[in-house]
Input
Amino acid sequence: MVMGLKIRDAISEEFSFEKEKAVAKKYAQRFQWEMILIGIGQACVWFSLWPLVIYEIIPLWVGFIIASICACMAYLPSHEAQHGNYSRGNPKKRWLDSFVGNFTLVTLIYPYEILRVTHMKHHAYTNHDDKDPDFLTSNAKSVVELILVSLNGASTEYDKAKEIYSNDIAFQKGFEKGIKVALAYRAILMLLVFMFPLQTLLLWWIPAKIGTVYTQIFFSYYPHIGTEVGRYKDTRFWQHWMPRYLNHSMQLHFVHHLHPNIGHYDEPKAIEELKPFLIARGVPGAEEIPDRVTYNPLVKI
Amino acid sequence: MEKFLETILAYNKIGFGLIFIGSVLNAVSQEIVVLNEVPYLSSISFLLGFVIGLVAHIRGKWLWV
Output
């Protein structure tokens, strides 16, 4: 018994949180220029589609396909901003988080501040049915149910979160800011649909829905299927037929839940080094993490 | 201001049905040649959009599932 305790203590010391944090910190320093490029780039491409389609330089269906791809790429740069991964704690660079976070979400028609405050609560209360604002999507019974929940608008009923966190002043402040942006989006959408109905439908509204469903499937649903409550239990390593380059490498999302400040493109290297810690801590699926994650498409048929 | 925002949000689905769905239905119906002879086509399109929004508002959701 004493011997067993000693072994367990030795393991916990070897894979202590302090050591894990020190490894993670190495990968949480680099400036995330790729994300800024993707965020600003996709939004600029999306803006350029409007004159191109309205002046019939490209057909509407081509614009629709490009807009849908832009919408699928819109969330992740904002997600990095929500965690302050551009400013990295430097108050002088905080405008960069806000700028990229807001600008990239134009394609998805989402207010950055609402996503930011609700996402922080998702991290704090992952898989708590009453406190996790993403619970409906991360704990859907199937992809079909998730799509229906999303299209019904139920996945974005953030007013429920507003009620639950009514005593959280910072949450309320961020939420109020976001509501104004949401109303501005709604007003612009209504004005545009009146002037350019089919263009607004196929360049903005449907692509935004496609982008939202894509984001919820890969960022929320797959990483959390069958997981529990707890730091090392609430997100999993998973694989399927799709190469990770097509779903924003969300197979690796678990490391983001453990260390949100690791830059997205630094996650594969971080996971390679953190793998023994993840196995020791019992992260779901950790045993199946390949030794080499970088450049590995993580396909499993 | 808060009251104004609450009112807008409360009737969100009806406004969306009337303006957004109505405008889209109107544009689509203009493209369909067989409907060109139908009188009050624009009014019917916007009315239909309004009804869809009203039903969604009463039911609290857009889809039938």
Notes: Residues 1-5 of chain A have pLDDT under 50 and may be disordered. Chain A touches chain B at residues 148, 151-154, 159, 179, 183, 186, 189-190, 193-194, 197-198, 200-201, 205 (CB under 8 Å). Residues 32-225 of chain A form one domain. The longest helix of chain A spans residues 197-224.
